Protein 1
Amino acid sequence: MFYELYLRSFYDGNGDGIGDLVGAERKLDYLADLGIDGIWLLPILQSPSYHGYSVTDFFNVNPIYGNIKELRSFLASAHKLGLKVILDLPVNHTSPNHEWFLKALDGDKPYRDWYLFLKNKEWLKARRHWDGEKVWTDYSGQLAYTLFGPGSPDLNYESPSLWQQMKEVLTFWLSVGFDGFRFDAAKHIFDFSLEKGICEYQHSRNLAFWKEMTSHCRSISPNSIFVSEVWDDARIVDLYSAIFGIGFNFPLAEDLKASISTRNPELLVKSLKTDLNRCFRSKRSYESGLFLTNHDMSRLVSAMNGDKELSLLAMSILLSLPGVPFLYYGEELGMEGIYDMYFNEEQLEPFLWFENGYGPGQTEWKALGKNHPHSGRSFEAQKMIKDSYFKRFKAIMEFRKLNHWLRLATIKSVKRKEDLVMIKVVGESKTANVFHNLGKERVPVEAEKGIQVINGSITRYRNRRYLGALSSAIEVTS
Ligand code: ACG
């Protein structure tokens, strides 16, 4: 299980209101106690942007987060606790303030070739693949290709020297102590056709690029972990996952949320059968990155329209599936936040440590617009209450930790009886039946062996067992 950590909002170690490495190091015990085995660190390289995806120096830590020495210390402490740490690396573009881009604007080699400048007026007609946005930005009279907007001109990997440069970047961060990378925007390395002058994914060229980059990393550190971010349909996600080893399962995330928020068990069955298709085969060369939310999405409770029982059900379904789970920071508190295109970025709000919104380490860089103080949502408040959302969420994580074998298990069957969904999973050492009740009433469950609740309730009545509304349970059969 990985924890997706947004440093800026997590824990402030130097009193400037912004989360940093020193602060996060102090809270590693908290993270380890959640039962995770790894941390996905959102971008921490030097960058002018709050999200960090537009880099100005690929060999430096953003000074607002600390320095390399502090990073090494953070990594060493994480490793001592048995936690792996992977770095989010956006190599598809830079900030327009990167020295490389400034030199490219001056026409300096090789930097001029490291970006794509308009060579044909016809190219201006190109539009972004998914929403029709314009893709060229005018920088003092020079038009550069900027798929993600003016804040991040794309790097142009037609240039072999750039491949070499990126390998040096990878070597550097592995030598600092990272265990691997979450590769951002993996399908975008080659996404503009110079021949046709349109935005078009060139998957085979992208795959060749990633093969070379991942082999390079493995030649330095054979056990490196790679996770691909490819937000696309299952066929495309699979193509990339096969190279990286782990790929975020975006279709599953979307379908799980759709089926659970509408309490539609048939949709859930369909989703498991199609989005986790490869988990029905015992031999597979890569794993699903299981998640429900991330920093580009609304938070779980918001996606469930404020219904916390549905959110917990979603977590217990997710954490009983084969694959590698990823948990977005703050979800364990039931924080809320709606992702919208106007950049309110509610989903990035400070982790709420204290009930009154203030205290040592509390970050304050962004207003608590959605996760108000005195709402009972803070860690301080919830850690004291027996059945708080946090405690119940953590219990689901503990279930997963104890059932680590599920990671490599195979799904044998998925069945449904009205609101009850039953999943048969077979692992190397164990087999189990997992039950999820999407209904509002308790339902009888047939379980010959002992049945254990994952979330919610089980009751006995006249020798029958009943799984409570919106509850999950597991029967380990061997
Ligand atoms: C990553 C990061 C994100 C970051 C960037 C840029 C990339 O997580 O935080 O932005 O460094 C696209 C890209 C992703 C990208 C997201 C934000 N995420 O592919 O790499 O945008 C469609 C498209 C997808 C698209 C998605 C969301 O196909 O390509 O993702 O929409 O816009 C079904 C379909 C599927 C479809 C979905 C949703 O599932 O199968 O194809 O996806 O429905 O409709 C950061 C900042 C930005 C800044 C940038 C520089 O957040 O603000 O501009 O950095």
Note: The longest strand covers residues 410-417.
Protein 2
Amino acid sequence: MVKIAAKRGLELRCKGWRQEGLLRLLENVMENAENQDELIVYGALGKSARNWPSYRSIVAALKTMNEDETLIVQSGKPIGVIRTHVNAPLVLMANGNIVGQWASSDHFYELERKELICWGGLTAGDWQYIGSQGVIQGTYEIFQTIARMHFDSNLKGRFILTAGLGGMGGSQPLAGVMAGAAILCVDVNEAHIDKRIESGYLQKKTNCLDEALEWIRQAVELEKSVSVGLLGNAAEVYPEILDRGLVPDIVSDQTAAHDLVYGYVPIGYSMTGVAEARANNPKQLEKDSGESIAKEVRAMLAFKEKGSIVFDNGNNIRTQASKYGVKDAFQIDIFTEAFLRPLFARAIGPFRWIALSGDPDNIRKIDRFILKEFADNQIVTNWIHLANQYVPFQGLPARIGWLGHGERTRLALAVNQMVRNGELTGPVAFTRDHLDAGAMTHPNIMTEKMKDGSDAITDWPLLNAMMNCSSMADLVAIHSGGGGYTGYMQSAGVTLVADGTEDADARLKCTLDNDTTLGILRYADAGYEESLDEVEKKKIRRIDTEALKEENRNA
Ligand code: NAD
């Protein structure tokens, strides 16, 4: 089959840059896909479209649509093009949503087999994935926060143990090296290890634990950074490291543990064995995965007991382990609540921009602009320096940068101006992860232990999506968990194309301001001090019904 890659250059195949930009983003997620033949972008099962006829029909629709039309996509399948108006989104999507009582992984797989539904991950189904770098700054900021909290702000000479070198987990070795640490990443799939080496995210590989540990030992001793990929099963390797009496400084895991059938690979299964079991004996495979995860998480808890800083990096591994008998799995912290919530409470989160012409120089010019114009923002300037030095582009040149309310709009409007006056050679798309302040409910990841107990309420991402539609975004998507995440989460995605026009100025300003406003309001509603401070400083019109209740009581 011909390999799909995003078109580069300035030639349009659609009736405008907004449609062309979205088409290139769809092609870009395919270019970066873990398994393009099956349209699987990342996260074990996260797809860009339901099947190949759907993919081709989406492409055809984008190529022929007018600006006053909207393409409707239901779980990766285009349903129709409707007449709206020029300020309406060009694409509206709902991916993987199933009502509560029916939202089980078994039911999801049944619907998937009938080709009635598919999982869009967070950024696969709505064409926002930019390769492993999509989560790299998040992982780096976690490591930096741990360094500040536990290691005198320095991870030099520290040993990080983790697993999973897939689409997203593949960012871990590079984030570890950027933080100065020696990082060991275990993966069962040699092809995935090789892919990370080829993309420049991983330095060394071996299938021998002794050799891997020796490389780590040397790097720790010399306080040098190194990333090592070890071919092995984490459920075997973690207990083995524990038995040898070694205690890593930091332990995590980013295997696709959320999915016991299509994601995690249990002990004793080869890659061919697991593929056969997926087709012929999924129930046994599910049980074996759950039992292996339980072993791995018991080892993680034992590391914690011995002093390692252990955290769940957003793959539901604790949830799976607790279902398979590990009662204290939730003693392990979740990264959002433990390390990143103060940022999310200020709506500082993973914002991204992509050069639609394919010209890497556009991203470098934007880097320079940020270093100059955001000089007082240490998080982003530190990151841009590091990203320039370490992060290779995958697919269309792109950058991630954690920015907050007002900052995103400022950057996007400046970039749109740079497109308009020809400083950049082509339009730029703006988007963000769903794992962002107001855009995700996941009581075991994003919204665990919310101050007011509102962990499971999904009104917020739904409001976010509706608000982004009213704010003139180009693409808006409502996602729910699929596969092993079924019933666990709800989220919303948004994308805009800065094509240099004044209309784009209006869209960018309205959407980006409102997107982060809702994030701040969501956390302010839950009582976070940082958000109340943002409300005050940034003059956000919050309605405080709690204060009114108090006034009524006193009246
Ligand atoms: P992926 O399917 O692309 O890769 C998973 C990797 O895990 C594969 O390389 C696989 O070979 C490996 N693996 C499976 N079982 C293993 C085992 N027992 N031992 C060692 N390796 C094993 O998935 P991905 O896109 O990298 O995502 C990984 C997880 O991270 C998912 O659960 C995803 O939902 C989650 N995630 C978290 C965040 C975040 O912000 N923290 C963001 C995106 C994804």
Note: Residues 359 and 443 are 40 Å apart (CA to CA).
